[in-house]
Task: inverse folding
């Protein structure tokens, strides 16, 4: 995977298109196309609307991050990866906790599907530890490692089998960069405005400036834009934060 160091601030901003229906999603696509680098489609929207929302975004020459976090037996996830390539998405993800074999077969399936169709190979990300989970949550589930230990362990496993990068908390970026290098893609969700009061379920968050300064390649922003009185103004502020973060590295 090539370094993303030459990407603009807008390219690095992924908008979480967490709409409930097609009409709401379309309104955000119309408003933000050209103002963000990519639209992230998650489980809620994809289940409600289906692949047609991807086609709408691609028709506007915008990029798509298919955030379905595939997690199943290797063959099933590999076939899902082929389908994702067929939808011409630019990025999609799987759960690293699905294991090395699952990730390895997915890498191969995506690459082969891209070669057959003549499309670019999407960025394949492994989800390490959800940003809604902290050390107490992991202990409750049964994990013995802390969040930072588990993130690094899963990220190393993903890189070893050819995965492009990871989805990881902003607080994990420094250790990931130190151990996995600058060409391993890091996508950071749970981004909040530095002036925003925390009122949601994300537990391990940082601002856009802090995440980019730490070394994130992309940041995912949803509520700080969706809930703003002036979404475009909020979008521009985040882009300025990204630019400041890039300038400080």
Result:
């Amino acid at each position: 995977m090539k370094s993303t160091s030459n990407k603009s601030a807008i390219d690095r901003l992924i908008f979480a298109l967490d709409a409930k229906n097609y009409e709401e999603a379309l309104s955000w696509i119309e408003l933000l196309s050209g103002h963000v680098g990519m639209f992230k489609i998650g489980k809620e929207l994809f289940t409600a609307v289906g692949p047609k929302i991807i086609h709408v975004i691609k028709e506007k020459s915008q990029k798509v991050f298919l955030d379905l976090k595939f997690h199943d037996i290797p063959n099933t996830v590999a076939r899902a990866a082929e389908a994702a390539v067929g939808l011409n998405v630019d990025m999609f993800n799987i759960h690293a906790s699905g294991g090395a074999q699952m990730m390895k077969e997915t890498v191969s399936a995506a690459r082969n599907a891209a070669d057959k169709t003549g499309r670019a190979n999407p960025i394949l990300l492994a989800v390490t530890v959800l940003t809604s989970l902290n050390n107490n949550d992991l202990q409750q589930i049964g994990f013995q490692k802390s969040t930072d230990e588990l993130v690094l362990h899963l990220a190393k496993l993903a890189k070893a089998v050819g995965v492009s990068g990871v989805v990881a908390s902003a607080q994990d970026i420094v250790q990931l960069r130190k151990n996995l290098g600058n060409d391993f893609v890091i996508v950071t969700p749970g981004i909040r405005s530095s002036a925003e009061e925390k009122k949601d379920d994300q537990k391990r968050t940082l601002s856009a400036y802090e995440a980019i300064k730490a070394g994130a390649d992309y940041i995912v922003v949803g509520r700080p834009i969706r809930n703003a009185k002036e979404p475009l103004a909020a979008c521009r502020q985040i882009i300025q934060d990204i630019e400041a973060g890039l300038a400080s590295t």
About this structure: The chain has eleven helices and eight strands. Residues 13-247 form a domain with the TIM Barrel fold (CATH 3.20.20.70). Residues 200-204 have pLDDT under 50 and may be disordered. Strands lie at 13-16, 38-41, 64-70, 91-95, 123-127, 165-167, 185-188, 218-221.
